[in-house]
Amino acid sequence: MLVEIYVEIDDFCKTHQELIQRLLKESGLVKKNHPSKLNLSEVMTILIYYHQSWYKDFKHYYQEHVQTDLRRDFPDLVSYHRFVELIPRALLPMCLFLNYRCSLSKRTGIYYIDSAPWQVCHPKRAQQHQVMKGWAQWGKTSVGWFYGLKYHLIVNQFGELINFYVSSANKFDSNAKILFVLTKNLLGWLFGDKGYLLSEAKRALLERHEALKIFSKCRKNMKKQDIPVEARLWLKKRGIIESVIALTKQQCDAVHSRHRSPINAFVNLFAALTAYTFRQRKPSTKINLEARLLPWPKGLPKAA
Q1: What is the pLDDT of residue 58?
Q2: pLDDT band per the 50, 70, 90 thresholds, residue 57
Q3: Any idea what the CATH number is for the domain that residue 168 is in?
Q4: What three-state secondary structure class fits 138?
Q5: What's the pLDDT tens digit per position in 5-56?
Q6: Are 51 and 252 in contact (CB under 8 A)?
């Protein structure tokens, strides 16, 4: 898997070398672009491979695993402190590469959308938190208040990542701007939870003459929508995106509160989502439409 990740990243960086250099120069993220023994492809590979390991602390991962077990794969390794200085260079290339990985996912016409809280600190320490100051905001989920940001994901029924978006925590899931960016090139059916109930104006903007149909569960005090039978069956499988979010948090370590700079925090998130796209086994779902729609024969006893 390490070789596969490096080869794909290296090909991507060589293909878009001029664009990456221009973005790094114009963004101002790298003030002094000193040459390094480690090239950009190797830095990105190490960052992504970390999220496929069982380590939960990057320093221990780099010192105990990379500098010992991966020395043969990366003969020009630098010290840990020097590597931390190289991480900001990977922000924009990592985001571009994640977009490229999303573009490789199958456009099946069946999609699921949801958001996940990115808590940057405990709510009691929000007033003294400084690392993500200016980025983090107060938000509320079904389990309570949190201080941080949100990341929004769209996946297909095979668990493949289609698109992503990072917003402040005080943005609603049904925000028209966020949904327009996420669903810009999608055609088919999109399923979400009750947070994606839309007004008529938003629905007309996003569905683009019914090229995209958005379905969600209704609240108890609302009139039930006229949803096709097949769409109703796919809507019941919405738990797949909850499984995807759980994998990005628990196994890919996308969210934690130990960051020391906003740039490294975003690099960590993008690297975790990229690591997820390389997973061979992803959550998937399907429906047996014929078995659901055919009536049960009369006189035949049903199985207990």
Answers
A1: 87
A2: confident
A3: 3.30.420
A4: strand
A5: 888 998 988 888 888 888 877 777 665 566 677 888 899 999 999 988 888 8
A6: yes
Q: Is residue 131 located within the same domain as residue 202?
A: yes
Cα 212 from chain centroid?
21
Residues 24 and 78 in one domain: yes
Pairing mode, if any, of strands 144-156 and 110-121?
A: antiparallel
Alpha helices in the chain (DSSP H): 2-15, 17-27, 40-50, 58-60, 67-69, 80-86, 91-103, 176-182, 200-207, 229-235, 239-250, 262-277, 289-293
Number of structural domains (the chain) is 2
Residue 149 structural domain = 107-261
From 261, 276, 291, give the residue that closes a domain.
261
Asked if residue 248 and residue 115 are part of one domain, the reply reads: yes
CA distance 20 to 199: 40
Please tell me the predicted confidence (pLDDT) of residue 150: 92
Are 108 and 188 within 8 A, CB to CB?
yes
Model pLDDT, residue 294: 46
